[in-house]
Amino acid sequence: MNVLVFDTEEQLGIAAGYYMCGQVLQKPDSVLGLATGSSPIRAYKHMIELYRQGAVDFSRVTTFNLDEYCNLDVNDESSYHYFMKKNLFEHINIPDDNINFLNGNAEDLEQECREYEQRIRAAGGIDIQLLGIGSNGHIAFNEPAEAFQRWSHVVALKESTIKDNSRFFDSIDDVPTHAVTMGIGSIMQAKRILIIALTEHKAKAIKQLIDGNVTPQCPASILQFHKDVTLMLDRGAASLIS
Ligand code: F6R
Question: How much is the pTM?
Answer without folding.
Answer: 0.96
